[in-house]
Amino acid sequence: MDSGSNWRDGITRRIDQLKDTLGEKDYKKYKLDLLRCVAERIAEFSPECGQCRIFQQDISTLTQDVGNTIQTADKVRRKAHARTIDRIVDHLQKQHKLVTEGYYLGMWMGIGLALGLPTGIPLGNISLGLPIGLCIGVAIGTSLDAKAKKEGRVICPGEKAISSLQGTKLMILIGLAVLLLAGLVAFMLLR
Ligand SMILES: [Zn+2]
């Protein structure tokens, strides 16, 4: 066994112990399932990636400290914990072309809505374009997600690991779509 898989097994064992000692609520809140998946990926890439080797240190520290972080209920430490996981997920996505569960669905729903709007114009009804765009977006996104899963590129299958940054982007997109729709309805009512 090389040192990479030794490290991974140590982390996995530690997280499994935490699962037994922590309540399910804290286990979820501190994204320990995600951390477990992320550690496996990092162990896979660390022989050829210096940044992943640095993240190995961070993951070791996180799993050692998480018990204390939960006990002290320190907000600053909790945020730092979440931020570190986000940073590692971000690196795995950008550098190693992995994706989170539902990544393409979120992205293509946004693209579908954005492209759907102008599509409605030649149909004579702008608001018709939005649901058409959304449906096409969902279809493309779902199939790309399925493809990524098949290729083993999903960091943590079954785990909706939307990072806070992605979450914010998605909320802005949905907010914009709702605003557009409300604007259209108002426009048509006033006409
Ligand atoms: Zn890396």
Plain-language structure description:
By secondary structure, the chain is mostly helical. The protein folds into 2 domains: 3-96, no CATH class; 103-190. Helix content is 80%, strand content 0%. It is built from 8 helices and no strands. The longest helix has 27 residues, at 164-190. It starts with a helix and ends with a helix. The relative contact order is 0.11. Residues 45, 49, 51-52, 91, 95-96 line the site of zinc ion (ZN). Zinc ion binds at residues 45, 49, 51-52, 91, 95-96.
Index terms:
single chain; 191 residues; binds zinc ion; elongated
Question: How would you summarize the topology of this molecule?
Answer:
Blueprint: H1 3-21, H2 24-29, H3 32-45, H4 50-72, H5 75-96, H6 103-119, H7 126-150, H8 164-190
Structure at a glance:
The protein has 191 residues and is mainly alpha-helical. The protein has helices spanning 3-21, 24-29, 32-45, 50-72, 75-96, 103-119, 126-150, 164-190.
Count of discrete structural domains: 2
Radius of gyration: 21 Å
Strand content: under 5%
Q: Mean pLDDT, rounded to whole units?
A: 86
What is the helix/strand order? HHHHHHHH
Q: How helix-rich are the residues, as a percent range?
A: over 70%
User: Given the helix and strand composition, which structural class is it?
Assistant: mainly alpha
**Unreliable stretches:** none
What's the helix count?
Answer: 8
Intertermini distance: 73 Å
Question: Given the C-alpha coordinates, what overall shape results?
Answer: elongated
Number-wise, the strands total 0
Largest sheet: none
Listed once per kind, the bound small molecules are: zinc ion
